[in-house]
From TrEMBL, chain A:
This is Peptide/nickel transport system permease protein. It is found in: Cell membrane. GO terms for cellular component: plasma membrane. The chain crosses the membrane at residues 60-91, 103-125, 131-150, 189-215, 235-257. InterPro entries: BP-dependent_transpt_permease, MetI-like, MetI-like_sf. The keyword Transmembrane helix applies. Residues 68-257 form the ABC transmembrane type-1 domain. It comes from the Bacteria. Belongs to the binding-protein-dependent transport system permease family.
TrEMBL record, chain B:
The lineage of its organism: Bacteria, Pseudomonadati, Pseudomonadota, Alphaproteobacteria, Rhodobacterales. The chain crosses the membrane at residues 12-32, 97-122, 142-164, 237-259, 287-309. It comes from the Bacteria. InterPro entries: BPD_transp_1_N (IPR045621), MetI-like (IPR000515), MetI-like_sf (IPR035906). This is Peptide/nickel transport system permease protein. Signal peptide: none annotated.
């Protein structure tokens, strides 16, 4: 009985909508997300546009759409970069073993004690705020996560008979990793990519909230919340929309990741 | 004493990783544009004034010398003087820790108090109403940014209901009650994502242990369901929960930076962030090193907790 898990469907739909909104915002938004219209200042949902207008009269719905592009772009780039480096470290550690493995995992430990915000504070001192700082800070934190997951998964495959057979046939560790290990752990890596992209969106929002993300006027959900803080009592709608957008985006990616995991690894279905 | 040997090896590892971290932090800050002297004196300062201050601060000494000086200072508790505050960095950090440490401790305690009962209950009655609620809570709680929860709490509780303070910190000298009150909403904001993660792990761990033979044996011996759960299942399920608690520390610290910002708490996160925007790099450098130290020490404590919680690990090196 092969059934699609409900989380996969729901997560796929939300993530699809998120990607759709991000792509659509490149060619069309209801209003120009950077155009101010002081007459609409702080107007509520329905009074000006679907979700109201912000402190300088920009259309909130349009900024949310354009913010999806920023958020997703930074989170995905960081996750793919960190994922690629981390996976490379993980599978190499599993293949080489010994001192190399211990050293790689020790460096991982150091990297893991630098959460994105902390690296961003350090990198911000070096390069100033911006997309590159965000991507690097988030990407660096992804490296140990992927290294750990891919190493664990790779070690499991290494102990299997068909890998032993390949070794006996005279294949080197690099070739085995390429031909046997990577294809067999790709499902786990893809699951992790989805979940970590969600985490990347959360981190990006946090960095922009602190003013360490993309520079204005590039739309960003985190900065929308930082701006909204000033108008908390007079315009609460400004707090609700970006927060919901972040939460929904992360929820969608997490559900997608869970669903993919259930699909590829039925044993975990009852456990989590 | 294998346990002692293990601990000393772990402390050795900690010292080495901390040293690598200090080197990375130092080099990154060194590479940052603008040195302390020109920042302190502003853009209009005469070049020879800047040069004089540079040599007074020891900035004209070689790189390795300054690194050794910083490291020596860290070991003896002298972290230098903040450029913007004009006070010793060590005292500045200590003052701010008096806010951040209670904040994160209350949040951690709160998240354990929420997630442990919820996770155990959910696991005890899989697919029941509590289980549905718990899985809903853990999915949504992980996705919601803690600083947004903070904003919503200010909006709903502090401004809406008029309960508690919307932000700021009166200081511990204003009395424990007043200081504690200022930390309640921030702790809740910080605890929600944490408890979402922990609920999920607790539930999964309890379900896994429930299916194990020794629990079945306990039930077969005539132990009631509840007694088997609390005597055998839960203690054995605690291990992954503690692991997760350790893994969450970096997120807890990141979260504290954000939540302190929302509630304008004078904690270590606000200090780091303000120091960065004022380019008070000596503060940034020391705060980041201290964060790293905290993460690593907590991980060490979590590792030691394993041994306490799981007697099977006690003999292992």
């Amino acid at each position: 009985m092969k059934r699609f898990p409900i989380s996969l469907i729901l997560g796929g739909l939300i993530t699809g909508a998120l990607i759709g909104a991000a792509l659509l915002s490149r060619v069309w938004t209801p209003a120009d997300p950077t155009a101010m219209n002081i007459l609409n200042r702080l107007k509520g949902p329905g009074e000006a546009g679907l979700l109201g207008a912000d402190q300088i009269g920009r259309d909130v719905f349009s900024i949310i759409m354009a913010g999806a592009w920023t958020s997703l772009g930074i989170a995905m780039t960081a996750t793919l970069l960190g994922g690629a480096i981390g996976t490379l470290i993980g599978v190499s550690a599993a293949a080489k073993g010994g001192v190399f493995e211990r050293l790689a995992m020790a460096i991982n430990g150091v990297l893991f004690s630098f959460p994105p915000i902390l690296s961003a504070i350090l990198l911000g001192a070096l390069m100033g705020p911006g997309a590159l700082t965000s991507i690097t800070a988030i990407g660096v934190f992804m490296i140990p996560v992927f290294a750990r997951v891919s190493r664990g998964a790779a070690l499991q495959i290494w102990s299997r008979d068909f890998v032993q057979a390949a070794r006996m046939a005279g294949k080197g560790p690099a070739l085995i990793t390429l031909q046997h290990i990577l294809p067999n752990i790709s499902a786990q890596i893809i699951v992790q990519l989805a979940i970590q992209t969600g985490l990347g969106i959360l981190s990006e929002a946090g960095l922009s909230f602190l003013g360490m993300g993309v520079a204005p006027p590039t739309p960003s959900w985190g900065r929308m919340l930082a701006d909204a803080q000033t108008f908390l009592s007079s315009a609460p709608h400004l707090v609700l929309a970006p927060g919901l957008a972040i939460a929904l985006a992360v929820l969608g990616l997490n559900l997608l990741g869970d669903g993919l995991r259930d699909l590829t690894d039925p044993r975990r279905r009852q456990a989590s | 004493m294998p346990a002692l040997k293990k601990l000393s090896r772990q402390i050795g590892g900690l010292v080495i990783t901390l040293w690598i971290a200090s080197l990375v932090i130092f080099l990154l800050i060194e590479a940052a544009p603008g040195d302390a002297a020109s920042i302190m004196l502003g853009t209009n300062a005469a070049p020879d004034t800047v040069a004089a201050l540079r040599s007074e601060l020891g900035l004209d000494r070689p790189l390795l010398w300054r690194y050794a000086g910083w490291l020596g200072g860290v070991l003896s508790g002298d972290l230098g003087t903040s450029y913007t505050y004009g006070v010793p960095v060590a005292g500045l950090i200590a003052d701010r820790l008096a806010v951040t440490v209670p904040l994160t401790l209350i949040a951690t305690l709160l998240s354990i108090l929420i997630s442990l009962p919820l996770g155990v209950w959910a696991a005890n009655r899989p697919n029941g109403p509590v289980d549905t609620l718990a899985s809903l809570f853990s999915q949504v709680g992980i996705a919601v940014p803690n600083f947004w929860i903070g904003l919503l709490l200010i909006l709903g509780v502090a401004l809406g209901l008029g309960w508690l303070t919307p932000g700021g910190f009166p200081g511990w000298q204003a009395g424990i009650g007043a200081a504690f009150e200022a930390l309640i909403l921030p702790s809740i904001a910080l605890a929600v994502p944490q408890s979402a993660v922990l609920t999920r792990v607790t539930r999964a761990a309890v379900i896994e242990v429930t299916n194990e033979d020794f629990v079945r044996t306990a039930r077969a011996k005539g132990l009631s369901r509840g007694r088997a759960l609390w005597r055998h299942t839960v203690p054995n399920a605690l291990l992954p929960v503690v692991t997760m608690l350790g893994l969450q520390i970096p997120f807890l610290i990141s979260g504290a930076v954000l939540v302190e910002n929302v509630f304008t708490l004078p904690g270590i996160g606000t200090l780091a962030y303000q120091a960065l925007s004022q380019r008070d790099l000596i503060v940034v450098q020391n705060v980041v090193l201290m964060f790293t130290l905290i993460v690593m020490v907590v991980n060490l404590i979590v590792d030691a907790l394993y041994t306490v919680l799981d007697p099977r690990l006690r003999g292992r090196v």
